[in-house]
Design goal:
Layout (H helix, E strand, L loop, with lengths): L1 H12 L13 H4 L8 H20 L4 E8 L5 E7 L19 E5 L2 H15 L1 H4 L13 H4 L7 H5 L7 H5 L25 H10 L2 H10 L14 H19 L5 H10 L38 H4 L1 E4 H13 L8 H7 L4 E2 L6 E3 L2 E9 L9 E13 L2 E8 L4 E8 L11 H28 L1 E8 L18 E7 L2 E9 L2 E2 H7 L17 E6 L2 H5 L5 E7 L24 E7 L2 E6 L4 E5 L3
Antiparallel strand pairs: 1-2, 1-10, 3-4, 5-6, 6-7, 7-8, 8-9, 9-10, 11-12, 11-19, 12-13, 13-14, 13-15, 15-16, 16-17, 17-18, 18-19
Helix pairs in contact: 3-16, 4-11, 4-12, 10-11
Pfam family, one: Beta-lactamase
Family: Belongs to the beta-lactamase family.
Protein name: Beta-lactamase/transpeptidase-like protein
Length: 597
């Protein structure tokens, strides 16, 4: 049969070795407030506090504003601040860094440029549909949004005309790093890449000069061929977004004005701005020691690439509302899922690039017994900013539901070490990732694991379950968590092993392999499809059975093999409602209820 052959072919391709694929937890678990009360997370916060405090014993005197953000809470769930706010003034209690201190965040601005495009993609779709304007999407060619954009002729014909917003946001357009030419000459030693020299060049860039430079400057590589950092690309990204908005709304906004109106205002980011420092914010401005850009007025052309000022508290709002909350603001959940995915892998296989993101990978053991534990890989979607005495980092860990903000500035003191936000990032993730991983899986165990019995029919098909007044002892299911994975260990209906029944569909006289009816059972992977979760109402979480014990994640799709009621044979349903948890396996028309032990 075609059915048997397909399964057998997949089976022969699978290698049974020490398991290395650890599924993510359901999205709803990430925003569970109880995660923050887990002992591992509480202990990890204490460890982070000790580690950051230790830096200020003998190591550094730099200013630091740090925050951790979680999907369940608006704003920060942990903060740490230390150092002098204004290094051109006498240190004192009124001159200390706080969570409301305002730093230049330099290239973290690029993440906001990308987000501004997403906001317009979401908000203008319904407006543009009734006009002559094409709907803006992240895959829109730049030339359709910004007619002034062009390139040298050969580059234009070799894919340049098809450069999209996503390619600009992921540094894969081929545009040069900068939107200006320098007079540096390393042979004769003419010019230096100092804070003063670079700051002056950045201050001189206008949207018009950035477009003119693109017109005259050859691409570094063919579009989408490679990834290479480009401030010029983000200048043009900002120009394209605001050009589209102005055409659609008959306005004449600059990109900073659009970002302020469409992001800062709705997110209540009252300490964030572009351009000259407002008088009301002067007392909160961080000023580094040594050469700095506190007084630099960024050119309008480079505001989308590096012009933003912000505080840890404001950036925490942004990360929560835009990138961590279970119901994101200003963009859709679908947009967020698409953006939190790699778009390009560098040849070293370790560095990944997304739209507005620099992606780093971390391996975390699935238990404290590291000699026997599996390892799961988590991705940090972040953005760094460095320049003029300021350093910044923001990131989110999408499948753990948390993120961080790191803002720092040089003290200018030669006897102390400078803070590097990416080093802070790595040290904190080494502490927090295992803790959050343990906590979210503990919530999975608390909410779903256990013995399920009291079998009844769901009513989807004819009666399948015999019941008695004292409950059905031959119909039950057992769910357990091991190595941070939820397993369906057993599913028995009227004395019949349902997992073996699933395996038997593929058995022949020569082959009787077991994929699901093993001692381990079936590993369960959250299935987040909206339609199938909606079928059983509020509180539903559908799970897909995954073959346990694989060295790589199983992405072969068994979902197409359906029962008589058109429900996938490889999916079970857990429903949390009115203080109880039910397990449904529609192919067998069975509903079980968890026993409260």
């Amino acid at each position: 049969m075609i059915f048997t052959g397909a399964l057998l072919l997949a089976t022969q391709a699978l290698r049974f070795v020490g398991a290395a694929c650890v599924p993510d937890v359901p999205e709803k678990i990430l925003a569970d407030p109880a995660v923050l009360q887990h002992p591992a997370v509480i202990a990890a916060f204490r460890d982070v506090e000790r580690n950051l405090s230790a830096l200020y014993v003998n190591t550094t005197r730099d200013g630091l504003s740090f925050a951790i953000v979680h999907a369940s809470a608006h704003g920060t769930v942990f903060s740490f601040n230390n150092g002098t706010l204004k290094n051109n003034e006498t240190a004192g209690s009124g001159n200390a860094v706080t969570s409301d201190s305002i730093f230049r965040i330099i290239s973290v601005s690029k993440n906001f440029a990308t987000f501004s495009a997403l906001v317009q993609e979401n908000q203008t779709a319904s407006i543009a549909s009734g006009t002559d304007y094409a709907v803006l999407t992240m895959n829109s060619p730049v030339r359709r949004l910004l007619p002034e954009f062009t390139l040298p002729d050969q580059d234009w014909r070799d894919g340049g005309r098809d450069i999209t917003l996503t390619m600009l946001a992921s540094h894969t357009s081929g545009l040069s790093r900068e939107s200006y030419s320098t007079d540096f000459n390393v042979i004769i030693g003419n010019g230096k890449a100092s804070a003063e020299a670079i700051g002056a060049d950045w201050a001189a860039v206008t949207p018009e000069s950035a477009l003119q430079n693109a017109k005259q400057t050859r691409l570094m590589f063919a579009p989408a061929q490679q990834a290479a950092y480009s401030n010029a690309g983000f200048s043009i990204l900002g120009s394209a977004v605001v050009s589209y908005y102005n055409s659609l709304h008959s306005t004449a906004l600059t990109w900073p004005a659009l970002a302020t109106q469409s992001i800062f205002a709705p997110f209540n980011m009252t300490s964030s701005f572009f351009g000259s420092i407002p008088n009301a914010h002067v007392p909160s401005i961080a000023i580094p020691g040594g050469p700095h850009w506190a007084d630099l007025r960024m050119g309008l052309g480079y505001e989308p690439a590096a012009g933003m000022w912000s505080s840890a508290n404001d950036l925490a709002k942004y990360l929560h509302l835009g990138w961590l909350s279970s119901s994101p603001s200003l963009i859709t959940l679908s947009q967020r899922r698409r953006m939190l995915k790699p778009l390009f892998s560098l040849p070293d296989g370790r560095q990944l690039v997304g739209a507005g993101w620099e992606i780093d990978l971390y391996k975390v053991f699935t238990s404290r017994n590291t000699t026997a534990a599996l390892a799961k890989t988590y991705a940090s979607y972040g953005k760094a900013g460095d320049g003029g005495g300021y350093h910044a980092w923001i990131d989110v860990i999408p499948n753990l539901g948390y993120g961080m903000v790191v803002l720092s500035q040089h003290s200018g003191l030669t006897d102390y070490v400078r803070i590097v936000p990416t080093s802070i990032r790595d040290s904190v993730h080494d502490i927090m990732m295992p803790a959050f991983a343990e906590a979210v899986v503990a919530r999975v165990e608390s909410r779903f694991a256990g013995l399920y019995t009291f079998g009844t029919d769901t009513g989807l098909t004819v009666d399948q379950v015999n019941t008695t007044a004292s409950g059905n002892t031959t119909t039950y299911a057992r769910l357990e968590v091991q190595e941070q994975m939820l397993y369906l260990r057993e599913l028995v209906v009227n004395g019949t092993n349902a997992l073996e029944s699933l395996d038997r569909l593929d058995w022949t006289d020569e082959y009787q392999g077991r994929l699901f009816s093993t001692p381990e059972g079936a590993a369960l992977v959250p299935s987040e499809g909206a339609s199938e979760n909606a079928q059983f109402g509020e509180g539903t979480q559908v799970w897909r059975m995954m073959i346990p014990g694989l060295d790589v994640c199983d992405w072969f799709d068994f979902d197409g093999y359906l029962g008589t009621n058109a429900w996938s044979l490889s999916k079970v349903v857990l429903v949390e409602r009115e203080g109880r948890v039910d397990l449904l396996y529609p192919p067998f028309d069975i509903k079980l209820s968890r026993v409260n032990l």
